[in-house]
Amino acid sequence: MKLFFAKLSLAALFALVIFPAFADEEVTFEANSPLTVSLGGAFRVEFALNAKPDGGTFEAPSFEGFDVLAGPAESTGSSIQIINGSMTKSVSHTYTFVLLPQAAGTVTIGAATVKVDGKVYRTQPLPIEVVDEGDGGRSQQQQPQGRSAGDAGRSEAQHQIGKDDILLRAVVSRTSVYKNEPLHVIFKLYTRVPYVNIVPESAPSFNGFWSQDLTDPNASRVSRETYNGKVYETRVLLDYLLYPQQVGTLTIDPVDMTVVAQVVIQSRNADPFFGTGREVLNVPRKVQSQRTTVTVKPLPDGAPASFSGAVGSFTMDTEFPEERLAANSGANIRVKISGRGNLTFVQAPKLQLPTSFELYNVKTTESINASSSGISGYRQFEYPFIARAEGTYEVEPVEFTYFDPQRMQYMTLRSKPLSLEITPDARGGGDAVVMQGRGMSKEEVRLLGEDIRFIKLGGAQLRSVTVPFLFSATYWIVLAGILVYFGVTYVCLRRQIRESQNVALVRGKRANKVAVQRFRVAKRYMEEQNRHAFYEEMLRALWGYMSDKFNIPMANLTKENVREELHKRGVSAEDSQRFTDIITRCDEAQYSPVESARMGDVYTEGVNLISRIESVIKR
Prior knowledge:
The chain is of the alpha+beta class and 619 residues long.
């Protein structure tokens, strides 16, 4: 009897633990199907529910435009997991249909409904594109004579991926903006076939823009989108917020990537419902985004003197000290600029104080958030000062002007005027006086006459004295010269030792010498007509020079950061572009036949370019 009550208590405790865990699970009802199917080919549509449905409540859509070959086939599954004392249960209930499209075009499968505990749940409509491949598409499934089954499978997999099945697009929020007005650009991948990997080939280049990377590596949300009349699965790969810094037509360069698509090849005798006899192949496909141009308009003329380049929509709050202060005491004036715009570039408004006030360095605090719509937050400027002279002073209002792109006009924010009464120093310091337009205490005034000696009267008593060399003026001069010589020698030696220990500095100084040696090796390959070795050695010379000169590891070198480093050191944009062109020509020429004369041109351009860069950097 005791054993029976013990089992009953254990069962009740088990139910109390399990039931609350089950009750918190959210019910979802989703529909899954391929994005693209071929005319005449069967495919499956699944309606998945993560809960137990009420009996007989499932209602399938009408499937207009399709023939129902099989279904609904119901399948149910459940699992229970206990991890660290926490119990979870998952339930799945799936309704599967096998459909055959009737005609080519975009057809939408309607919503299915089901009830769970009396509550109705619906799926989202599914757009499916039906493609008529014709006889050509069916003939591709036949294995050509004289080719192996593996080659035929890879060829079939290549042909199953259409030219527009994988796209990479640069989506720009606007193509016409004002200078310093935010611009949002995303690089979005459009796919109509499954893929297993994405390999970046080049980084985005935003010449003429200030860029803020908004890419979230943890966000991989996939959505559906119709583009050019076709349904794609889309995924945002790169996300940037741009602020144009130049006026005119700016270009967003293309981005290259390699997408590894996954293609399933099914045998001709495979059952369309159970899907047996399938083979999965990985097919790499290179994609490139389009080149995008943005028109940057200049800001209108007639900007007020208080305008310093702020563009957006802002507000200004000011905090002034008490209107009565003691002389030689400090106080602060705070100005807070809040809103949305190019807050990163907002400068402290000018504060005009009386000449008898001492103004110290402005302290800046900020809170800035970057999003796809722009930068928002605030920048606060604190102006510390000390009032030296007593009296009553009027402080001019603080003015801040920004350009509002929505109103297309300059807006000026102005604080209230401030009247300060400076009382005598309460600590008993020196009385403050005003002298030549500035505050000056009496102790700062020097008394003339005390530092002038009276002329000595009387007869001069002069006598000649022979001074020995030891401890004479000449002796001390020579000794000082020797000490200075040894000091300079010691500093030079220490500097030489320190520079020899600085690996980055040594690499920078030896960069030109190492590049010349590699150019000589490349010239020997050119004379031997060894094209592949020549271009490989040219790439080593060019990339090696940039790596040594700028102290950047070879693995981190890109064309973009090389252009940035050259620009910082005063190298012209033409030479930076010429370096990129030479690198591109060498990369392409390694695997394509070229004439020996072209090797000579590449060699001459590379040597001349390094010489010009070296002369500019050493200047």
